[in-house]
Amino acid sequence: MRQPDAVIHQPVRLKIMAALKVLPEGELIEFVRLKTLVGATEGNLGAHITTLEEAGYASVAKDFNGKRPRTRVALTKQGRRAFEAYVAYLRDILDQPSA
Amino acid sequence: MPLTHGEAADALREISKTERRAFSAYGYKSAAPFLILWGCLWLLGYGATDLIPQFADWVWLAIVVVGTAGSTLLGMRASPGKTKFSWHIFSTWLAALAALSSIIAIMRPVSGTQIGAVIPVLVGWAYVVMGIWMGSRFTAAGLAIVALTLFGFFLLTAHFGLWMAFIGGATLIGTGLWLRSA
Prior knowledge:
The structure holds 2 protein chains of 2 kinds.
Chain A: H1 6-9, H2 11-22, E1 29-30, H3 31-38, H4 42-54, E2 58-65, E3 68-75, H5 77-95
Antiparallel strand pairs in A: 1-3, 2-3
Chain B: H1 5-51, H2 56-78, H3 87-107, H4 112-134, H5 136-155, H6 160-180
Helix pairs in contact in B: 1-2, 1-6, 2-3, 4-5, 5-6
């Protein structure tokens, strides 16, 4: 029996991946906006983004918008593929007759 | 441990919910600069229509050119590459202009006020339709544009240009700022 991708399966990371997946390829989302969408605290979101970055699923860009520091996040190609595989895995489970 | 049927269904529901919210937020963020730009242009166009009606046609021609060029530039800025000419945005504006021109050519409005009212009403309803698919803030913005335009057209006919300049323009600019904050 296949196992779910443990990196994506965690509820907050699942929401982060779902939110990033909607963006066009290469598009970045601001950390603050992502925090609102996911409904996580700053520290919690930061820790989960680091996990996703270490897995190669998300990339983080830090720069300045005027004088204000800005952190933005995007889904990598590897992350997009992993998320699609995870969704396919969930659908496969639903397609099987329940016990 | 593999997931159960119920856990998989819950996860898919959560994904769908988050995707819908993210899709709306991305749509709001993308649309905001266009609304602010066109709010400023409405302010100028309708203001000029009321204050210097003899030059209104030329002012509106300039506004259409500036608005189309500005919208294309905003589309280019918003795209991840940021350097390529955005044919999608440019073509969308051309199609919208062609659609509005076709309607005006067929309906033959008898006054400038009718043209000045029918375009915002059509734009407003387009936002309502967008809102049905992309998020309720678009619907609210569309309904506000339609209601304010109809109010000005039927009840403030003598000062319709000024009404649309300040109330219509301010509504578009305010809506743009509201969408940006979403």
